[in-house]
Structures are given as C-alpha cells and as structure tokens.
Amino acid sequence: MQIIKNTRWLKRIVLFISFCIVSLILWNTYIFFQKFKIEERAKMETYATAIEELAHRDINASVALPLKVIEETRNIPLILVHEDGRIKEWFHLDAEKSKDSTYVLQQLAKMKQENQPITIEYLGVTEKIYYQNSALLNQLTYYPLALILILVLFLTVLYMLFSSNKVAEQNKLWTGMAKETAHQIGTPLSSLLGWIAILKEEKTDPVYISEMEKDVDRLNIIANRFSKIGSAPTLQRQAIAPISKQVFEYLESRSSKKIAFQFSAPQKEVFVNINTELFGWVLENLVKNAIDAMQGKGVISLRIEEGNTKIKLLITDTGKGIEKAYFKQIFKPGFTSKKRGWGLGLSLSKRIVEKYHNGKIRVLKSELHKGTSFLILLNKA
C-alpha cells in the first residue's frame, strides 16, 4: 500500500515538474519571439530611413552606408506601395512566383495581417513599406507547437510506464493472494482426507464417501490452480473430450435438475496441448456463468468440433443473453452484471486460453432472452 502511495506522489511530482519546465520554456520562447519581432521592426524602420537618405543625398555623396543598411534586410520580404495603393516594387520574394501578379497581391495581403506598415516620405512622395516576418521568426512561431507535441509524447510514455508498473504491482498482489489461498486450502484438505479415512473404517455408505472424495479432489484441483497463478503452466498433449466431459458432468451432478446438460464430441480422439487444471477452470467459469444466466432452468450444451488445424469448443445456453455492446467488455477485469462477484472469471478465462494456450475465446453470438454461445479455439496437437 505504501508503494502505491509513493508511486502516486512520484507521478504528481513528475507531472508538476514537467508542467513547470514546459511553461517556463513557452514563456521564454514568447519573450524571445517578441524581442526578435521588435528587432525586425527596428531593421525595417532603419531600412525606411536609408531609402529616404538615398532619395535626398547629392549625386556625388557617398551612399555606402544606406546601401549597407538596405543589404542587411535581404532576408525580410517586403513590398513598396504608393500612396494611391499601387504596388511600386517588391524585394526578397520568390523570383519565379513573383512573375504572377496574383502571387504578389497574396503576399501583400499576408503582410498587412502580420505587421503594421512603415510610412516613408521623400521628394514629396508618400509610400508604405509592408513586410513579412523573416523565415527564422516564422519558425519560432511553430516552436511552441513542437514543444507541446514533445510534451504530449513524453507524458504518454510516462503514463504507459506508470500504467505498466501499476499492472505489474497488481499482478504481483493477485499472485501473492492466489498462492496464499492455495496454502490456506491445503490445511483443511489434509484434515478432510483424514476424516474420509475414518468414515471408511466406520463402514459408512460408499456412495457418500465417493461423493465426498470427488469434492475433496475438486478442492485439491482448485488449490493447484491458485498455486499456479503467476507462473508459466506446463502443457501436455492430451485428448480434449474426456477432460471437458469430466468437468461438464461434475457440474451437472451439482446443478439444478431443471437444467438439461448436453455434451457432444467427435468419435475419434482429438488432441491439444493444454494444462488440465487451468483449462478445466475455463470450462467451469463458462458453464457456471451459463447456469447463472438461466437462473436454474434451461439447456446448456458443450460441443467439440474438429477442424483442419483448430479444435472448436462451443458452450451454449438458453439464458438471458448479452447485449452486443458488451461482447468485449465482459472479458475485462471487474466487469460483471451480477450483484455479487468481482468480475474476474471471464478475464481469467481469457488469460488462460490466449496467453497460456495460444488460443482464442470470444462470444460467438448472443440474443437477449434467448441465450449465448461462447467459442474457444485451440490449436491441434
């Protein structure tokens, strides 16, 4: 519990620091952008002054300084416009595109949106200089967006990291609980075996003893299942029909007599690589869910079919059915439509079938108030 709390605090601290760093960078970028924009404005004002100087200078006077100032603005596209609105000339636009007057007008409209014009007067003429932001300044405008994208990617990776750690912690917790449960079951099991031995000596009805032994064997299987959670199970090549039939008949003998159990399988044995105890758990979960869905009355069937490379197991009931929107959600941990239960049965079944047996499990079809069919696909051995 303390580890989970520490992880939450660490997550908050990292998020807060990330937010502060990005905010600081964005703020500094904005300040730098504004300063750079002011500097470009100052350059254009100096450019305007240089044009006025050139217009007023004597023909023999030196023009080196004004020309140098004009040369320094060569990276800033600009357009000179007469006071009557006519375009006089332009500089530093695309040479090929500038041959099209429409392109020049489009650039002028863009310049009017980006910056206020600079007015120049010389020899009784008034003109306006319109200019664009330089390429470097335009790149800076996209820098915050790139930074935000990097932040989003960073937070995504961070979220996935914490999520994987959380899942690992939960798996570790569940594994520990499962193994402890198996350990706790072991003690009364040993005691029950002793009592059964005593009952045999007391000449108790063999039918009762046989049923008790079946239940004790079932408890032993359950304990073994829990003890194997968290570790890779051993798979063995076995005939699928006898294993499935044994689980099916055991549940039939302990269910309502108003439920009809139907089992069918190919006449010849079909083999798969499975772990008997874990796969039996899957069938139990599906059959018990079907019994609950039928509320103690109906028909449940388990049919085994052989394909070219796959073995199909179809578990069908005549229960209340499942809405199509929930076909995938029912396999998520914690999802349940029952008033009681933790919603772990189907999620465990999916994990056992798909992760441990490299198979597939899904809802094949379901209709409300008519029934549901689950399909399990396993590879032939």
Short overview:
This protein has 381 residues and is α+β, with helices and mostly antiparallel strands.
Q: Would you mind describing this structure in some detail?
A:
- The strands form 3 sheets. Strands 6-8-9-11-10 form a 5-stranded mixed beta sheet. The protein has a 4-stranded antiparallel beta sheet with strand order 2-1-4-3. Strands 5-7 form a two-stranded antiparallel ribbon.
- It folds into 2 domains: 2-133, no CATH class; 233-379, 2-Layer Sandwich (Heat Shock Protein 90), CATH 3.30.565.
- The model has no long low-confidence stretch (mean pLDDT 81).
- Helix 1 runs antiparallel to helix 2, helix 1 (2-56) runs antiparallel to helix 4 and helix 4 (135-201) runs antiparallel to helix 5.
- The chain has helices at 2-56, 64-71, 101-114, 135-201, 206-228, 240-253, 276-294, 345-356, and strands at 78-82, 87-91, 118-122, 125-131, 236-239, 259-264, 271-274, 298-306, 310-317, 360-367, 371-379.
- The chain is of the alpha+beta class and 381 residues long.
Distance between the termini: 44 Å
* Main sheet overview: 5 strands, mixed
The tally of domains stands at 2
Rounded average pLDDT: 81
SS-based structural class?
A: alpha+beta
The dominant shape is elongated
Strand order of the largest sheet: 6-8-9-11-10
Task: Give the H and E element order.
Answer: HHEEHEEHHEHEEHEEHEE
Unreliable stretches: none
CATH homologous superfamily caption of the largest domain: Histidine kinase-like ATPase, C-terminal domain
Number of strands: 11
Which percent bin holds the helix content?
Answer: 55-70%
